[in-house]
Amino acid sequence: MTDAGLRHGRASLGLSFGVQGVAFALLVTRIPAIQDQYGISDGLLPVFLAAVPILAGAGSVATEKVVARVRPSVVLRWAQPLVLLALLGVGAGRELWHVAVALGVFGLAVGALDASMNMLGVSLQRAYGRSIMTGFHAAFSLGGIAGASLAWAGARWELSLLASYLPVVAVLLPAALVGSRWYTEGKGAEGTEAGAGSGSAGGALSFKLLLPLCLIMTFAYIGDSTVSNWSAKYLQDVLGSSEQLATVPYNVYMVTTLLGRAVGDLGVRRFGAVAVVRGGSLLAAGGFAVVAVAPGAWVGMLGFTMLGFGLCVIVPQTFAAAGRMFPGNSDAAVARLNIFNYVGFLVGSPLVGALGDAWSYRGAMLVPMVLVLATLVYARAFGPEPARYGGGHERPRTADVG
């Protein structure tokens, strides 16, 4: 694999992460419009919303089996266009069964997409010999900000879902297809090119060894879903902000997530993954604590800002750790770990809502705080430390590219 090939593969995979960020944000930020277009009742809406991550988990499980026969890049090449077309289907339909089918396809394709993207990311990081995984997730965050901004513009101008989605899909679908020409797998643990059959190389996957990372992934997404689903309500109902100000914390969270991920790989190269994850966990827990005791809206926003900087590094480093833990079986490890992304998303919002109703929303914020702190118990699962340049440590397996 040439340095130029690795650079092209890295750029094309970054594009894929960014496109996925746009598509996901366009879906989740227009849920009220989707509900209105299809006449989905408040009682039925949670069923639709829960079905997407459940089907995504199924898609991730299926991907683990598929990549034993074909390359992850092949899965990604077909899954990304399917996600975009399913998004367009959500906007184009009129009957309830239309949106049910479209969301079902979206969920299954997203599971395959998330799993295959992270498989390629882990493989490329191994080929680079240094941390680059957080940068891919920064591209996702950037895409999410762009998608949320496009959704805001569509709502502001009272565009239909189809009018909002069609131009975006018309631009991103060809871009994703062209970019897929340069998808690249790195080198496997034994120096062979990753690809078909790599999921079974290197012995059986031990779920017992993977379990700490699965728990960390779940805790991180419980924290993330708490911010995305409850930050506006918390600021308005608990901290007494205006409705307009209540929309700010999630935007701040998204921006700080992007900024933290943009520099996260530098931190991992300098201090190692274990130290970065520990620092992120402490910062995120501190953010939840600040939110829980905040006397007013501006202090609450400080807490959500801390959460963005803290949580942003945990998920990409968890995928990277799975790749280091099972270097000959990384595809299967990533696919299985990816399921707990959706577990955390499913658990987080209902958990905080139930505790908020039964106890208090301030008290409910302490639960994700404790769960994020539990990451410290499992932090050693993020070793061994990656290569550190200039310090006499392990040298990279390829030339320093890109």
Automatic annotation (TrEMBL):
The keyword Membrane applies. The chain crosses the membrane at residues 12-31, 43-62, 74-93, 99-120, 132-153, 165-184, 205-223, 250-268, 280-298, 304-322, 334-353, 359-379. It is a multi-pass membrane protein. PROSITE patterns: MFS. It is found in: Cell membrane. GO terms for cellular component: plasma membrane. Residues 210-402 form the Major facilitator superfamily (MFS) profile domain. Keywords: Membrane, Transmembrane, Transmembrane helix. GO terms for molecular function: transmembrane transporter activity. Its main location: membrane. It comes from the Bacteria. The keyword Transmembrane helix applies. InterPro entries: MFS, MFS_dom, MFS_trans_sf, MFS_Transporter. This is Integral membrane transport protein. It comes from Streptomyces filamentosus NRRL 15998.
